[in-house]
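Hi all, posting the design record for the shared folder.

TITLE: backbone redesign
STEP: 1 of 1
STRUCTURE INPUT:
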């Protein structure tokens, strides 16, 4: 009887998989399809690390420090995009130029300084021209910005102790680790 039940379940699974099979699409039909490249990741972080220990045995005895009961909690949003060479150069140029102008550098001077760091059509900041680039971006949340900034991750270290004597050095909290506007670029070389 059990063999019959298992066979019926297996048959039902096979039938459901074959019903959801993919169908092919012609190139001309595919050309009419538009979509959004890249992905966005939202996360509610609830991470606990029991202990992070760093030691140095070269002093004749083991000296160490331990960071205990590490908690990372909060919300984050991460966008991941694939950029081609031209888009990467434009993106990094806009970012550098914007930072210089925001720091009080006159626009014309900022453009000249940016051009020195990001030569047009060439490598920029270690980038090999012609390579694709993966951009990780923590976007600035619009609309409910005040709420979003309050919910950004907080990192707490319950205690910091030395290994040899066990003496306590207190605890550490980094509140509202706001990474909105941060961009990280990754490319091979």
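Okay, here is what came back for every position:
SEQUENCE:
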């Amino acid at each position: 009887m059990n063999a019959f039940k298992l066979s019926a379940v297996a048959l039902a699974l096979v039938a459901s998989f074959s019903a959801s099979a993919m169908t092919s699409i012609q190139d001309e039909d595919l050309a009419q399809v538009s979509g959004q490249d890249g992905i966005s990741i939202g996360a509610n972080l609830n991470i606990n690390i029991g202990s992070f220990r760093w030691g140095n045995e070269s002093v004749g005895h083991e000296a160490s420090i331990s960071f205990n009961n590490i908690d990372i909690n909060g919300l984050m949003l991460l966008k991941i995009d694939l950029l081609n060479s031209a888009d990467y150069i434009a993106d990094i140029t806009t970012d550098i130029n914007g930072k210089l102008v925001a720091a009080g550098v006159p626009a014309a001077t900022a453009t000249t300084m940016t051009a020195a760091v990001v030569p047009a059509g060439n490598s920029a900041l270690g980038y090999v021209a012609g390579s694709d680039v993966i951009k990780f971006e923590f976007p600035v949340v619009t609309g409910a910005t005040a709420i979003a900034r309050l919910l950004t991750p907080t990192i707490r270290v319950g205690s910091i102790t030395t290994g040899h004597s066990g003496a306590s050095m207190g605890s550490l909290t980094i509140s509202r680790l706001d990474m909105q506007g941060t961009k990280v670029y990754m490319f091979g070389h």
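COMMENT: The radius of gyration is 26 Å.
Let me know if anyone wants the other runs.
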